[in-house]
Amino acid sequence: MSKTVPIGNASGIIPVVGLGTWTVFGQQGNSDEVERATLAAIDAGYRHIDCAWNYGTQPGVGKALEAKIKEGVIKREDMFLTTKLWDTHHNPCLVIEELRDSLRQLKTDYVDLFLIHWPTALKDQDMSGETICPLDENGKGIPADHKLEDVWKMDTKP
């Protein structure tokens, strides 16, 4: 079992070492590579997996988790899953949509930690992932006017 620390103001623990699934220099690993890395990490004793919607790695992580649970190597509650809200989904009506999309990709019904990736909102985008960072004609990110303190209001209305 990996070393853990208690989570302040909550019940639970977080493993101090985890597998980060961000890939270097904007190059995304394909789903099979991410799945193999996650399988190896779980076999090596990792119990914390960090991913994010915009990394494009959640499907590979989800396949690995599903496989290791089916094999009986882990139970879902043995794992600590972190994912992050992307900048184009700071609109409170998009937050729950992204969370649901992440849960679907990760093949689980909950994550242990859902963070705001960056405190800067970018122009609202859909969940297609076709545009991760909307840019203006000068190549600069197009900001959105969503207050950071409003993000977690998670408007669930259609």
Automatic annotation (TrEMBL):
Pfam families: Aldo_ket_red (PF00248)
InterPro entries: AKR (IPR020471), Aldo/ket_reductase_CS (IPR018170), NAD(P)_OxRdtase_dom_sf (IPR036812), NADP_OxRdtase_dom (IPR023210)
Residue span, NADP-dependent oxidoreductase domain: 17-132
PROSITE patterns: ALDOKETO_REDUCTASE_1
Protein name listed in UniProt: PE2R-like protein
